[in-house]
Design brief:
single chain; alpha/beta; nine-stranded mixed β-sheet; binds S-adenosylmethionine
């Protein structure tokens, strides 16, 4: 069956607040892979490893678990066919909706994860370094707070771990307690997870790494849990929770609460509301790395769903939505065009100027975080920010 979406006559209206600017800056637009290649090489020894090799095979294998070196286990809830089916479902739903949208989950193939790592080093992208500085400053407070609210944390779970640059700090702080037994990095990108697993194992040979390839929108109930009375610290860093709409955030927090009971705790990183100009710069950097990251979503669909998106025909756009208090990333069609996704037998028309939403990034304040936690069975125990109040880390316990 071929389903063709009607081409809207007018471009998607922009939300209120400062408008985004198309990020095409004249000249030929480099492909995401070209931008990623320019940003290589990564330091020797970071890629691959036993877990990396095992994780990479997740794309095609059907096995749900595979063990690499002793002490590193990779469990897969998104094998190649499952990943393709989930992406196909998201793409069909989003590209036939009005306005059109794609889930940010699919940004993260190997190129997307590499581009994201580079974004975290950009001067405009304050989020990662600010969150890291809060972790550095308050790691000791976190451990002593955990001792008073949750006895016996023996597992660190990290959702959307990526290559886990910040879990190094958490692993170090928890390992110092002498009780840490297991690290569970969880991500949709098997390659990034492989690197996280390898690095964690090398730094903490006494800690078992149980990596999980999955989608946090559906696989929270399958995460390993510590045997009572021990508990887990579940970290969800980077502001990634802001990529979910309020209802999806509530669903995720509720699922976490029912999976991790008394004795466990949640460490949540949230970006805070601030001057929209700074927010927009963070999602539309002058070097064009975020633009390449955004367009990489189309490369992923071209490769995995047999689509024929012409990346040069879409401009990167970032806008601040004042009403919803989130930044949106979009891809604006530069001409009227028809895109075919042969792998899912779908044809999609784009009007000139029509925008495809690829990510929302919600911004918070303490009151909102407190309320969202309380509504999902959690109690905010501690709230740490950097001195400028740009980013927050919340420690929550079952309410
Ligand atoms: C914004 S990055 C943050 C990475 C890292 N936690 C940090 O703080 O730098 C989002 C991460 O979440 C992962 N991710 C996105 N959607 C996901 C999903 N639905 N399920 C699991 N992981 C997901 C991505 O692969 C990526 O590693």
């Amino acid at each position: 069956m071929t389903s063709r979406t009607p081409a809207p006559g007018a471009p998607t209206p922009s939300p209120t607040g400062p408008t985004g600017r198309p990020a095409a800056r004249g000249g030929r637009i480099p492909t995401p892979a070209e931008v990623a290649a320019r940003l290589r090489p990564r330091p020797a020894g970071q890629a691959g490893g036993a877990a990396g090799a095992g994780a990479a095979s997740a794309r095609t294998g059907d096995a749900s678990a595979q063990t690499g070196d002793a002490g590193v286990c990779v469990e897969r809830h998104l094998t190649g066919p499952q990943r393709s089916a989930a992406m196909a479902q998201d793409a069909r739903r989003g590209l036939t909706a009005s306005p059109k949208e794609l889930a940010p989950t699919w940004f993260y193939d190997a190129t997307g994860s590499l581009l994201f790592e580079k974004i975290t080093e950009l001067p405009e992208y304050y989020l990662t370094r600010t969150e890291r500085s809060i972790l550095e400053r308050h790691a000791g407070d976190l451990v002593s707070e955990l001792a008073s609210v949750a006895q016996g944390i023996d597992t660190l779970v990290e959702l959307g771990a990526g290559t886990s640059p910040k879990s190094r700090l958490l692993l170090g702080a928890l390992a110092d307690t002498g009780r840490l037994r297991r690290f569970v990095p969880f991500d949709v990108d098997a390659d990034a997870l492989g690197r996280a697993a390898t690095a964690a194992r090398a730094a903490h040979p006494g800690v078992t790494v149980h990596a999980v390839v999955g989608d946090f929108r559906q696989h929270i109930g399958l995460l390993p849990v510590p045997a009572a009375p021990a508990g887990a610290l579940v970290a969800f860093l980077g502001g990634t929770i802001g990529n979910l709409r309020p209802a999806a955030r509530a669903e995720l927090l509720t699922a976490l609460r029912s999976r991790f009971g008394p004795g466990s705790a949640l460490l949540l990183g949230t970006d805070l509301v601030k001057d929209p100009a700074r927010l927009l710069a963070a999602y539309d950097d002058s070097a064009g790395v975020t633009a390449a990251f955004n367009r990489n979503l189309l490369t992923v669909l071209n490769r995995e769903l047999g689509a024929d998106f012409d990346l040069r025909a879409f401009a990167h756009v970032a806008v601040w939505d004042e009403a919803n208090r989130w930044v949106e990333m979009r891809l604006r069609s530069l001409r009227q065009q028809t895109v075919r996704l042969a792998g899912i037998d779908l044809t999609v028309d784009f009007a000139e100027g029509e925008e495809l939403r690829t990510e929302i990034s919600a911004k918070f304040d303490q009151e909102t975080v407190d309320k969202e936690l309380a509504n999902t069975g959690w109690r905010l125990a501690r709230w740490w920010t950097d001195p400028a109040g740009d980013f927050a880390l919340s420690l929550a316990i079952p309410g």
